[in-house]
Sequence to fold (127 residues):
Amino acid sequence: MTVSNPFLLHAVESMSHVAPVSYRRIFNGYGIYHQSVQFAIVINDRLYFRADDYSRSLYVAKRMTAFMPSSIDVGESNFFQLPDEVLTHPAELIFWMRIAVEAAQGSYSLEDDEPQVELPIRHFKIR
Fold:
């Protein structure tokens, strides 16, 4: 699995026209972030946006392909491939980015009925 620099830069540049984004290398691709929330991945020169239980049906209705790593046999995907033409339509791109960011933010939150415990940040030193 590889990602070409031209594709990555095209995707990031297109998204940065509608909202601030950043990216960094993860596993076999790149993670795309908005305000420190990973909402997309780029793998094999394909852009995938995050989905959740609420938004998955929107991706399926548009016949977007689910990302399924070869290591997973069965299950629902949390990422769906965004058609390349969406990158050239800012209004449509912001729509899908908003959905993906909201899905990603929801995946990081605790359940309302769980107690929230403040844990101190610990810094470890290599000895």
Observations:
- Confidence is low (pLDDT under 50) at residues 109-127.
- The longest strand covers residues 37-43.
- Helices lie at 5-16, 56-61, 90-108.
- The beta strands are 22-26, 29-34, 37-43, 46-50, 79-81.
